[in-house]
Amino acid sequence: MAPAAPSFFSTALKTLRAYYTAEMTRRALANLTARELDDIGITAGDIDRIARRGAGL
After folding, report:
1. Where is each YjiS-like domain found (predicted)?
2. Are the C-beta atoms of residues 36 and 44 closer than 8 Å to each other?
3. What separation, in Å, do the N-terminal and C-terminal C-alpha atoms of the chain show?
4. Please, what is the Cα angle at 14 between 45 and 16, to 5 degrees?
5. C-alpha to C-alpha distance for 9 and 20, rounded to whole angstroms
6. Which of 2, 9, 11, 26 is the most buried (most CB within 10 A)?
């Protein structure tokens, strides 16, 4: 028997968690100075992309 497809609610919860994770990452990176961002090899313009990718969005 094939596994059941994910329910609407489990899919919605997974999506909400991903957006929450992205937002927390975005906030943490946004609080860094330009020097700190440079130290880790990113710029302020990279923050949204990195946050989304890290959360799997």
Report:
1. 14-48
2. no
3. 30
4. 55
5. 16
6. 26
Cα 51 from Cα 29, distance rounded (Å): 9
d(CA 21, CA 23) in angstroms, rounded, equals 5
In angstroms, the CA 34 to CA 12 distance is 35
| Residue 4, pLDDT score | 67
DSSP annotation string for 2-57: PPPPPPHHHHHHHHHHHHHHHHHHHHHHHTS-HHHHHHTT--GGGHHHHHHHHHT-
> Rounded CA gap, 24 and 2, in Å?
36
Instruction: Confirm if 54 and 25 have CB atoms less than 8 A apart.
Output: yes
